[in-house]
Amino acid sequence: MIDRYVFLAILIALVVTWVPRVLPFVLTKGKSLPPLALKFLRFLPLSIIFALTLSSVVDERVGNFPRFLPIETLALFPTFFVVLKTKNILLAVVVGVAVTAGLRFLSGF
Predict the structure, then answer these.
(1) How many CB atoms are closer than 10 A to CB 78?
(2) Distance CA 58, CA 68 (A)
(3) How far, rounded to the nearest angstrom, does the alpha carbon of residue 98 sit from its chain's CA centroid?
(4) Phi-psi region for residue 88, left (φ > 0), alpha (ψ -120 to 50) or beta?
(5) Does pTM surpass 0.70?
(6) For residue 109, what pLDDT is reported?
(7) Every domain of the chain and the residues it spans
């Protein structure tokens, strides 16, 4: 039988992760946002993708300068090429993973 403490922790984690993702949709349903807010929101997907991409190709350690990971950085070029040509994010992810795996295999990691 599951412990009540663990069950309560899981429920709290569910609420904490679910509310910030769903609440904005609930609050703005049927309402129009000001033009300044819409202009700001247009840049969010690009900013999020850039932050995720940069965090995956840069190795940061306390006390050292950040450095680019060579294999992951090389995999960016074909991935971005696929995104620019096809505008298909799923295909770009598949290409990025495949190129990274191929480069790691060829380099002996």
Answers:
(1) 16
(2) 4
(3) 18
(4) beta
(5) no
(6) 61
(7) 1-31, 34-107
